[in-house]
């Protein structure tokens, strides 16, 4: 595929077998708001945003929207929440009902690592 234009050839490097997961939630869980969400990661390191460091990145939570294509900058808005400080958990205030939560890992300049470094679950808020 095309190389990233701004992060160098290692910007989208992902270790084989690396992944992210919801450490404390399972697909289909019923939860109460605010929801504690813990971000799990395997095979890569969490590092604050700002520079490209091979094998590292930071988390984003995407609420009720699709994950981000590889190399694409993850938007920053009400449904795409950045954790550029290197945070590994958050509390989400969610309206009652069904929601999809996606964890999307991205590099130091917010370029998505794509499907390998994402995970999506559905939760039901009481």
Describe the structure.
- By secondary structure, the protein is mostly beta strands.
- 0% of the residues lie in helices and 39% in strands.
- It contains no helices and nine strands.
- The chain has strands at residues 19-22, 30-31, 35-42, 45-46, 56-63, 80-82, 89-92, 97-106, 118-125.
- Strands 2, 4, 5, 6, 8 and 9 form a six-stranded mixed beta sheet that branches. Strands 1-3-7 form a three-stranded antiparallel beta sheet, with no helix packed on it.
- It is elongated, with a radius of gyration of 14 Å.
Can you give keywords for this protein?
single chain, elongated, 9 strands, mainly beta, 126 residues, 6-stranded mixed beta sheet
Oligomer: single chain
| N-to-C order of helices and strands | EEEEEEEEE
Mean pLDDT: 94
Total of DSSP H or I helical runs spanning 4+ residues:
0
Instruction: Kindly estimate the percentage of residues that lie in beta strands according to DSSP.
Output: 35-45%
Give me the Rg, rounded: 14 Å
How far apart lie the N and C ends? 43 Å
- Percent helix range: under 10%
Query: What shape does the CA trace take?
Result: elongated
Q: Give the structural class.
A: mainly beta
Mind describing the biggest β-sheet? 6 strands, mixed
> Regions with pLDDT < 50 over 5+ consecutive residues?
none
Number of DSSP-assigned strands: 9
């Amino acid at each position: 595929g095309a190389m990233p234009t701004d992060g160098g050839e290692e910007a989208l490097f992902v270790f084989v077998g690396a992944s992210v997961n919801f450490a404390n939630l399972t697909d289909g869980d019923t939860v109460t708001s605010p929801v504690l969400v813990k971000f799990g990661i395997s095979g890569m390191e969490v590092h604050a945003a700002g520079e490209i460091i091979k094998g590292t990145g930071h988390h984003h939570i995407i609420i009720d929207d699709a994950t981000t294509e590889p190399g694409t900058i993850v938007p920053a808005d009400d449904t795409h929440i950045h954790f550029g400080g290197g945070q590994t958990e958050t509390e989400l205030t969610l309206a009652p009902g069904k929601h999809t939560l996606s964890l999307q890992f991205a590099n130091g300049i917010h370029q998505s690592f794509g499907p390998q470094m994402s995970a999506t679950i559905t939760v039901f808020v009481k």
